Amino acid sequence: MQELMRSNDAVLISFVDALLNDAGIPHFVADAHMSILDGSIGALPRRVMVDGDWAEQARRLLKDAELGHELTDPA
């Protein structure tokens, strides 16, 4: 799995989740339930993870949606 992006913005994460779902790209949002640890203040970022085989397609999708600036640098 590769990290596609990370953010504290729940609306952005939800939007990216919807884009990836609509495109049929398998992914998951890691750390979605970490608010229990940070007292629900949103201090811990959530990460959108994709399989390496889908990473390039997912990156292209986010760039096409003008969210390229949100992408984590590929490792």
Description:
This protein is α+β, with helices and mostly antiparallel strands. Helix content is 37%, strand content 20%. The chain contains three helices and three strands, in the order E-H-E-H-E-H. A three-stranded antiparallel beta sheet has the order 1-3-2, with helices on one face. The longest helix has 14 residues, at 10-23. The N and C termini lie close together (11 Å).
Strand order of the largest sheet: 1-3-2
Give, in order, the helices and strands.
Answer: EHEHEH
| Total number of strands | 3
Terminal CA distance: 11 Å
Shape: globular
Oligomer: single chain
| Number of H- or I-type helical stretches | 3
Unreliable residue runs? none
Mean pLDDT: 88
Taking all Cα atoms into account, the compactness measure Rg is: 12 Å
- Beta-strand proportion: 15-25%
Give the helix level as a range of percent. Answer: 25-40%
Q: Structural class of the helix and strand makeup?
A: alpha+beta
Largest sheet: 3 strands, antiparallel
